[in-house]
């Protein structure tokens, strides 16, 4: 290639059949990506080179490549090596879901699994997991769609890929949660803050949340909280630059307490503000804050 476009973006979408790749492509098309579904891996380098020579008409491409490629799918790793040799940067988005959810989706839509033309759906899903295991390990972002709504999926993708500001740099996703409702599956780091003094046992704050001033002061003024936040922020200050150097484009951090109502909410908001002040692109979400009026 004679000329390179440093702003050119290549996003490879892969993962388990039924995990939501088609839905992701629909969103990306709305955000200006040139999308191709089921592109043979052998054409990856050539397609990318042609796109880069479009004189700016195509700056973002999203390519779905999965086991539907059959024998050609195994050529993907060689194609990725070619991209790297040609100094073409790319990211891999991997979508997955639990066996139970995938089986239900296939039965509801009456679709046929590409590895199960004659049935045996569970066996096909397990085989597909095995085939994709190495590729999953190379993914920049992994999203488990088992318990995520279309709206939440869109918001997550919006943070990662929609705007020029977000798609070109490193982003951090912070989420507070309650252990009672389960641990978020698609996170890189999980912090348990149930050791911090609990506002729930104060009758005045019992039905408040971590976004109320009284609760914020109670949680953040604790000497235990101050010590934890100081150490946790120092850890993040060490980790984040190294993640960026390694090529990671998004860091997902989950902070949990018992119910996701008080402690995790206050601490997540505070950590988000501190990371924002350090110049990082941060989004904050409170998964369970509206669910509980009980013990935090």
From TrEMBL:
This is RNase adapter protein RapZ. ATP binds at residues 15-22. InterPro entries: P-loop_NTPase, RapZ-like, RapZ-like_N, RapZ_C. Residues 9-163 form the RapZ-like N-terminal domain. GTP binds at residues 66-69. Keywords: ATP-binding, GTP-binding, Nucleotide-binding. It holds the Pfam family PapZ_C. GO terms for molecular function: ATP binding; GTP binding. Gene3D superfamilies: P-loop containing nucleotide triphosphate hydrolases (3.40.50.300). Transmembrane segments: none annotated. The keyword ATP-binding applies. It comes from Candidatus Syntrophocurvum alkaliphilum. Residues 171-289 form the RapZ C-terminal domain.
